TrEMBL record:
A molecular function (GO) term: oxidoreductase activity, acting on CH-OH group of donors
PANTHER family documented for this protein: PYRANOSE 2-OXIDASE
Source species taxonomy: Bacteria, Pseudomonadati, Pseudomonadota, Alphaproteobacteria, Hyphomicrobiales
Name of the protein in question: 6'''-hydroxyparomomycin C oxidase
Domain Glucose-methanol-choline oxidoreductase C-terminal: residue ranges: 376-492
Essential cofactor(s): FAD
Length: 504
C-alpha cells in the first residue's frame, strides 16, 4: 500500500465517509477508505464496544484532566450509524442562522449554506434509504417532498406521552425514523422485536451507513476499504495541496502511506480536527488549515438530559416490548419566547434498552436536547502524553455556556411537566453526560466565508488547501437542535458531488 496512488482517500466509514466514498467511487474514481475500527459482531451493543474505544481527556470540576472523554460515537465499520436510534430529523430553517439566539461571546453560528441548498440532498437520501414520517404535523418542519414511508405507530408509552402533550395544548407527532415501517427497497419492515438504540438491527429494517447504496453498482476496484487503519498524518505536497496520508495498522503497528489527488476527512468532528492538528509540518507549523488558530475551536455536543417516571397500568397489559427507541416527538418549544434567548429545543420519547415492566407499572422516559453555543475556547486540543498507538492524546476542552445551562433547565421543566400530565408522580432526572462527547459531535472544522473565523468553505474545502475537504459534523458552525446524522449525510452527499466535478 505504501506505493499506492488513489484519486481520493476518505478517512472514516460512518454517515459521512460512506456517503462520500460510494458517491465518488461510482463515477469510476479510485477511492481508498481508511477505517480505524472493524466490523461489529452480531451481538454488539454500545456498552460492549465502548470498553475498547479510546478515551479523551476532559476537565474535571477541579480543572484537572481526566480520561472520561468520548471522542467517538462508535469506532467501527459504519461508524455511529451501526448502533444509532435511526432518528432522522432535518435541520430547521433557524438552525442555519441562529444569530438572534446566541450570546454575544459566541462564535458566528451562521452556516454558509441554507436549508434550500441542502433540501435536494435530503430528498435524495430519503428516497434511497427510506424515512418513515408524517408530513405537516411538526410545527417547525422545513418544506419537503411527500414522505416515502408512512410513520411508525406510537408505542404504548408513546401514545401516553402524545395524549398528555395534546392535553397540554401541544402538537405531538411521530418521530421521523430511518427505520422501515413497511418493506422498502429490499429491506423488511421493523418487527418491533428486541432492543433498537445502541444495538445492531437484526433484520436490516433500520438504515445504516450502507443502506443508501445497496443498489449502487461500483466499477471493479473503484473502492477499497482498509479496516484497522488509522490515519495519523496528512503531508502536504506544497503549501496549498495535500499530497499523501500516512496511516497505521492498529494490529501490527506498521505504518504506510497513500498518495491521493484529494483527501476527505469524515472521521467525526473530534477525530478530523485532531488529524489536522497532528499534521503540523514546516508549511503548516500549527497543523494543516490552522493558520488562523481555528482548527478544533467551536466544538459542540448538544446540551441534553433525560427525565423519567413510572405510572400504574393494568398488570395484564405489562409485557416486554421492542421496536424503535422513539415514536413520538414534540417541537413546540423549539422556538419559544419563554425560553432563554427565545430558542429552546426538542423533546421526544426515549425508551430504555430494557423494555420489560414490573409490578403493574411502566416507565415513561423523555429525552430533551438543544443546540449549544459555538464557543472559541470549546476546542479539540492535543496533549503531550501519548495514547496506546503512540499518538498525542486528545483533549476535549469544553464548558457549558451559562445561557445554555438556563436553556437546558427550561427544557427539563417542560419535559417534566409532560410526564406529570401523563400521570407520573415522581419525575427523576438523568444526566446524559453530553459534556464528555460521544453521540452528537459538531464543529472543530467550522464552515464559513471568513478564513479567520472558520476552517473550511461552503463546500467543506479547507480554506488554504485546494484538495482537502471535511465532510463530517466538524463542518457544522452551529450544532442545530435535532439529531445530526441525516444532515451530516445530506451535506456529505453535496460535498461529494462537488469533489466529483473537480476531479472529472
Amino acid at each position: 500500500m505504501t506505493a499506492d496512488i488513489v484519486d481520493v482517500c476518505v478517512v472514516g466509514s460512518g454517515a459521512s465517509g460512506s456517503t462520500v466514498a460510494y458517491e465518488i467511487a461510482q463515477h469510476g474514481l479510485r477511492v481508498l477508505l481508511l477505517e480505524e475500527g472493524r466490523a461489529l459482531p452480531p451481538d454488539a451493543s454500545l456498552a460492549s464496544v465502548q470498553d475498547g474505544m479510546d478515551t479523551a481527556l476532559v476537565r474535571s470540576s477541579a480543572g484537572t484532566l481526566t480520561s472520561f472523554g468520548r471522542p467517538w460515537t462508535v469506532c467501527a465499520l459504519g461508524g455511529g450509524m451501526t448502533l444509532y436510534a435511526g432518528i432522522a430529523f432535518r435541520y430547521r430553517t433557524i438552525d442555519f442562522d441562529a444569530r438572534a439566539h446566541v450570546a454575544g461571546d459566541a462564535l458566528d453560528p451562521t452556516w454558509p449554506i441554507n436549508y434550500a441548498e441542502l433540501r435536494p440532498f435530503y430528498e435524495e437520501l430519503e428516497r434511497r434509504m427510506g424515512v418513515a414520517r408524517l408530513a405537516g404535523v411538526d410545527p417547525f418542519e422545513p418544506p419537503s417532498n411527500p414522505p416515502v414511508l408512512p410513520p411508525h405507530d406510537y408505542s404504548a408509552k408513546g401514545r401516553l406521552i402524545a395524549d398528555a402533550g395534546g392535553r397540554l395544548g401541544q402538537l405531538p407527532f411521530p418521530t421521523p425514523l430511518a427505520i422501515n415501517s413497511v418493506p422498502y427497497r429490499g429491506r423488511p419492515a421493523c418487527d418491533c422485536d428486541g432492543p433498537c438504540n445502541e444495538h445492531l438491527c437484526p433484520t436490516g429494517a433500520r438504515a445504516d451507513a450502507r443502506s443508501p447504496f445497496t443498489d449502487v453498482a461500483l466499477p471493479p476496484g473503484a473502492l477499497t476499504v482498509a479496516l484497522g487503519s488509522k490515519a495519523v498524518r496528512i503531508d502536504l505536497a506544497n503549501v496549498s495541496r495535500a499530497g499523501s496520508v500516512e496511516w497505521l495498522d492498529t494490529l501490527s503497528r506498521r505504518r504506510a502511506r497513500v498518495r491521493a489527488r484529494c483527501v476527505v476527512l469524515a472521521g467525526n468532528a473530534v477525530q478530523s480536527a485532531a488529524l489536522l492538528l497532528r499534521s503540523a509540518q514546516r508549511a503548516a507549523p500549527n497543523g494543516i488549515g490552522n493558520a488562523s488558530g481555528m482548527v478544533g475551536s467551536g466544538i459542540s455536543f448538544k446540551i441534553s438530559g433525560y427525565v423519567s417516571g413510572s405510572i400504574g397500568i393494568d398488570p395484564m397489559s405489562a409485557r416486554p416490548a421492542g421496536g424503535p427507541f422513539s415514536t413520538v416527538a414534540i417541537s413546540d418549544h423549539y422556538l419559544d419566547e419563554e425560553a432563554p434567548s427565545g430558542l429552546g429545543g426538542m423533546i421526544y420519547e426515549a425508551s430504555r434498552v430494557e423494555r420489560t415492566d414490573h409490578d403493574g407499572k411502566i416507565t415513561l422516559r423523555l429525552h430533551f436536547l438543544a443546540a449549544d453555543q459555538p464557543m472559541r475556547n470549546n476546542a479539540v486540543r492535543l496533549a503531550t502524553s501519548l495514547d496506546r498507538l503512540g499518538l498525542p492524546k486528545i483533549i476535549l476542552d469544553y464548558w457549558t455556556h451559562p445561557l445554555d445551562k438556563r436553556r437546558l433547565g427550561y427544557l427539563c421543566r417542560r419535559a417534566s411537566n409532560l410526564l406529570t400530565e401523563a400521570g407520573v408522580k415522581q419525575v427523576d432526572f438523568q444526566d446524559s453526560n453530553y459534556q464528555f462527547g460521544s453521540g452528537h459531535l459538531h464543529g472543530g472544522c467550522r464552515a464559513g466565508v471568513d478564513p479567520t473565523q472558520s476552517v473550511v468553505d461552503r463546500w467543506g474545502r479547507v480554506h488554504d488547501i485546494d484538495n482537502l475537504y471535511v465532510a463530517d459534523g466538524g463542518f457544522f458552525p452551529y450544532s442545530g437542535g435535532v439529531n445530526p446524522t441525516f444532515t451530516i449525510q445530506a451535506n456529505a452527499l453535496r460535498i461529494a458531488r462537488r469533489i466529483v466535478t473537480q476531479l472529472t
